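Render this sequence as a predicted structure.
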Amino acid sequence: MLSPQIRQYLIITGNYWAFTLTDGALRMLVVLHFHQLGFSPLSLAMLFLFYEIFGVITNLVGGWLGARIGLNKTMNIGLALQVLALLALTVPAGMLTVAWVMAAQALSGIAKDLNKMSAKSSIKALLPKGEEGRLYQWVALLTGSKNALKGVGFFLGGVLLSALGFTGAIWLLASALCLVWLASMLCLKQDLGKAKNKPKFADIFSKSRPVNVLSLARLFLFGARDVWFVVALPVYMATRLGWSDWSIGAFFAAWVIAYGIVQSLAPRLTGKHPDGKSALRWALLLAMIPAAIALGLSEPRVLLLGLAVFGVLFAINSSLHSYLIVSYAKEDGASLDVGFYYMANAMGRLIGTVLSGWVYQSAGLAACLWISAAFVALAALISLALPTALATGQKM
């Protein structure tokens, strides 16, 4: 029989999986549908502007909210908001203006980061202090499986767009997620992650040096991915390589699924107790890949091979960071530190998304890749300031 902790972990993981599936599908649906309508790369990036901006705000405030009212409530609120965001896109085609889609994406951004912050913070509450190896494995499994499902979501988005059209696909996603939300309301533990001492609103800003340093490194790490991955790459594949919607969705699905599998296996590759030196080494390896792709971009095989290597190294970096933040977070009200960290993550995505559309439209994919290499190099330099030995649950 499963222990209560395992049962709660499985419920949280199931919620996170279902949410991620709809989020990945929605991202691909929006990019491909509005590209077909003639939107420029910069306009496509702008559709996700509020998604990323409200993700920043949500992570900052959501950690404080989770510590006050419980992570079960913030997770369920996130699921409900995603259902509403999907339903907002089922309006007649004439109402799908840029402003309307941006507003729906804002709601989705709030939902996504409430859900992610709740899931990651919950693991800290479910495991006893001192189980660092098990903590890393649980975080890696949650993060890796989530990204594998995000890849399936990309593929699902491309398939559903071809099979059901934009509105039909959105209705299907909203209906399925609504059932998950109702099940979560019944099954998730009521006091999960609630802090013993009610934090003040001023506590949303972390006072931990390792958390602050890791958050800044995370900002540049995720900016480095999204500056070429979010808008520039799918548009490049469609316009320069002549790939179909189905092919693009399938490729992104395969890439993100493989990326998620590597994240799940990260503890075997980095060791079960990584520290700041580990973050530095893996970031330095990653920094070389976008530069190498940029130099060989004229050959499509270089792009595809580079994407594979980038995916492996980025997955290890991401999983390692996800473990470090949960380990650095204080025991009581872990969602405050985790929320602050994912605020930086969302800020990196915001910067990367805007640059992805603007730089690609102005200077092409190679320029996006050079910026990516510079961002990863900055993340590596910042990692020099991380502790070289973990002090779990302490303010350092």
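Summary. The two ends are 39 Å apart (CA to CA). Residues 148 and 257 are 4 Å apart (CA to CA).
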